[in-house]
Design a protein that fits this description.
The protein has 114 residues and is mainly alpha-helical. The protein is built from three helices and two strands; from the N terminus they run αβααβ. The protein is globular and about 60 Å long.
Length: 114
Amino acid sequence: MMLIKILFTFIFFLSILRYSDGQFEDYCIADEQTPDDVLVEAMKWACNNGADCGLIQQAQPCYLPNTVKDHASYAFNSYYQKMKHKGGSCYFNAAALLSGLNPSYGSCKFEYLP
């Protein structure tokens, strides 16, 4: 019985290691407590400074839900993923925060770059 428990534990840890390179994914998303006007300004800045905001335009995969928070989250993450190794952050005047949960949904895929 003890051997089965040890074997099960070993297999469990092997399955985790198989799908992990030892790093946690981090995504930059809008802080839900931030007012929309602040998010809009921060999103404009992100889109003008390196974020790929094409996918949050009408008829694109990340347009819906058409909310400021959802569009800002996509823009913030796009900027952060592209710029984090060049000194970029996920601050946006305190309008954003880092999350370990992938915010992708449906056909809208949030980029992650290790």
